[in-house]
Task: inverse folding
């Protein structure tokens, strides 16, 4: 799979700037320095290619906006409770934590004949800033000067859902449950992230 890096970056920036948030240009500058626009979305799963992280972020944003629009007739309070700019901010920026964790490497994989061969890929390292996952995204954005609402911070923090919970931590479990109950944006971003990775980003190999 080849991605149009330039087109995807332009679409990402257009969506992000449409929020007209103060500090967005500083965020963009920091994302450039972190390597966000070249990073893959994963090391060995969905969109594990150059520029995959931007594409995944766009996919998550489109899924989140679709969910938000579809849910409003079913739950009219969402119109006032969740704003479009919050959906865009939380979905586009939920994975900025991945900007600096993937490093190019050579891996082994089996070819069509079942033989092992070298191929380019990525390895994961947390040496740059070992802060965690969702919480790292929140911290990076705050350090860039972006003013996030409580709902946006919690939607980003808990976008992995149960996968982001330390099951040995009662506090983690209670915080996640409370955040999801208080802020619908948390469930919207969590659901959109899963739909993007498991449906929108499937490959032919995934379906075999």
Result:
């Amino acid at each position: 799979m080849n991605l149009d890096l330039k087109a995807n970056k332009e679409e990402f920036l257009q969506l992000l700037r449409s929020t007209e948030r103060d500090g967005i240009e500083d965020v963009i500058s920091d994302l450039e320095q972190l390597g966000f626009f070249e990073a893959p979305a994963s090391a060995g799963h969905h969109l594990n290619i150059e520029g995959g992280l931007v594409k995944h972020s766009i996919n998550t944003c489109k899924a989140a906006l679709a969910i938000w629009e579809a849910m409003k007739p079913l739950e009219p309070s969402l119109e006032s409770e969740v704003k479009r700019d919050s959906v865009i901010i939380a979905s586009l920026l939920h994975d900025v934590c991945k900007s600096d964790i993937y490093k190019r490497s050579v891996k082994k994989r089996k070819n069509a004949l079942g033989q092992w061969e070298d191929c380019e890929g990525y390895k994961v390292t947390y040496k740059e800033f070992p802060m965690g996952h969702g919480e790292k995204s929140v911290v990076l954005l705050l350090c860039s000067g972006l003013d996030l609402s409580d709902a946006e911070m919690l939607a980003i923090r808990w976008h992995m859902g149960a996968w982001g919970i330390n099951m040995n931590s009662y506090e983690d479990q209670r915080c996640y449950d409370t955040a999801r109950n208080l802020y619908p944006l948390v469930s919207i971003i969590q659901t959109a992230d899963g739909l993007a990775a498991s449906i929108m980003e499937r490959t032919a190999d995934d379906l075999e």
Summary: Residues 52-71 form the longest helix (20 residues). Strands lie at 102-110, 116-124. The longest strand covers residues 102-110.
